[in-house]
Write a structure and sequence with these properties.
By secondary structure, the protein is an alpha/beta fold. It has eight helices and seven strands; from the N terminus they run H-E-H-H-E-E-E-H-E-H-H-E-E-H-H. Bound molecules: uracil. Uracil (URA) binds next to helix 3.
Length: about 220
């Protein structure tokens, strides 16, 4: 089993986060490392910040890191990430050109024996974390944002957005940034109804991501 080694942290009062030392993405990432704006920092191993080129044209937002991401410190490296990678590869899109992040930067879980089971972040945890996503968007200024799942979509497009009804359709933010949402890759992995249901869910997921080929 992977060992859980917590990186050293600066001392920051509960409920707050350090100010970034400058306007750069690196400074934002450094500040987020010591974030205590909500209680999720405590049980988590580390902040999992976004990764990718700081001039990426496409910024992908997921929900929150999972178990593997929490241990490794990198977004989308577990089963959901592998499925996302497979879909991108099928479309001929190189993930290395994308900036990949999450709406919430700490893993929220409940223990069940040795397992750490994903729990959805609540509204106040999402609100507390929003400044990091806003900071990433402001610094990267992508042409396109891709939201994976309802939590990502609502953080970017607002609480009225419904992935079930509006997935795979172009939306626009006030500043002109183009956005679309699709389901979260974990929903594809968990699709009920056996192999055929999962095959169809995956096909629809890839069809939504194919909007990136419009660029
Ligand atoms: N699910 C997410 O939403 N993000 C990750 O980084 C991993 C799994």
């Amino acid at each position: 089993m992977a060992t859980r080694k917590r990186p050293a942290r600066r001392s920051v009062p509960e409920g707050s986060a350090p100010e970034p030392r400058d306007e750069s993405l690196d400074a934002l990432r450094d500040a987020a490392r010591d974030c205590k704006r909500c209680p999720l920092w405590k049980p988590a191993t580390q902040t999992v910040f976004g990764e990718g080129p700081d001039d990426a044209r496409v910024l992908v937002v997921g929900e929150q890191p999972g178990d593997r991401e929490d241990l490794s410190g990198h977004p989308f490296v577990g089963p959901a990430g592998k499925l996302f990678d497979r879909a991108l590869a099928e479309l001929g899109i190189d993930r290395a050109g994308l900036y990949v992040t999450n709406a919430v930067k700490h893993f929220k879980f409940e223990r069940r024996g040795k397992a750490r089971l994903h729990k959805s972040p609540n509204a106040s945890e999402q609100r507390a974390c929003r400044l990091w996503l806003e900071g990433e968007l402001a610094r990267i200024r992508p042409a396109v944002v891709v939201c994976l799942g309802a939590i990502a979509a609502r953080n970017v497009l607002g609480p009225a957005f419904r992935v079930t009804r509006q997935r795979g359709t172009w939306q626009e933010l006030a500043d002109g940034t183009r956005v679309f949402a699709t389901v979260h890759p974990s929903a594809v992995l968990r699709a009920r109804g056996g192999d055929e249901a999962r095959r169809l869910a995956y096909r629809d997921f890839v069809a939504d991501l194919a909007l990136l080929l419009d660029l």
